[in-house]
Amino acid sequence: MRKVFENELKELNEEMIRMSDLCTKAISTSVEYLMNPSADRKGDVAALVEECNHTERTIENMSLRLLMEQQPVAGDLRVITAALKMVSDMERIADNADDIADIVAEGNITEGQVGTVDLSGMAEAAMGMLTESISAFVNKDEAMARKVIEADDVVDNRFTELKKKLAVSFRDETKNLDALLDLFMIAKYFERIGDHSVNVGQWVVYMTTGELVGNTN
Asked: Distance between CA 109 and CA 90 in Å, rounded?
């Protein structure tokens, strides 16, 4: 019985890794699209997000089956609980990628405007947090997970600076209001990606140590 349970836990972990890879690809593709709006990447992002959603449902079904049929205890229970929580955050990150691609597809933003407010820098910071949180999960690396949690203010501070730049632009560039609003919304999505990455890091800490840190929900 234990061998069967261990095999099912291994399958669950493999699906989690698969979903994390899809999530990361969705965000990186949406960022590529943002940096090069003339490229048609909206369909690519949508396909990745749909696959991510399908994988989330698979993981949820696997997790619930393990809870009901195997009655896991202690560390095994933490792994399954954390998996259910993490896939929720990863699904939301994928949705943010879709939202960013939708905004870019509207055609209001130019490559030059992205550089003006350093949106690429914020995207890089958010992607860095996401990559490290996923790596922490895959490698069961508590130290790296805590590093992501401690970096909670990095993307938030970049968002604050970007808002200040946009405020000046709103005053001086009345003809580009649609583009400026779109830039603000995309920046907000990057901030949320940072927040979800922190959540993933918190659940990795819980999974590996049993310690609940921050505002895990």
From this structure: 27
Burial of 73 (0-12, 13-18, 19+ CB in 10 A): exposed
**Residue 89 class from Cβ within 10 Å (0-12 exposed, 13-18 middle, 19+ buried)?**
buried
User: 165-198 pLDDT, tens per residue?
Assistant: 888 877 766 667 888 899 999 999 999 999 999 9
Its pTM stands at: 0.89
- The widest CA-to-CA distance across the chain, in whole angstroms, is 69
Listed residue (189, 193, 196) closest to 100, CA to CA: 189
Scored b (16 or more CB within 10 A) or e, 8-24 reads bbeebbebbeebbebbb
Q: Is the dihedral of CA 3, 9, 12, 13 positive or negative?
A: negative
What tokens appear for 129 in the block?
Answer: 């947090």
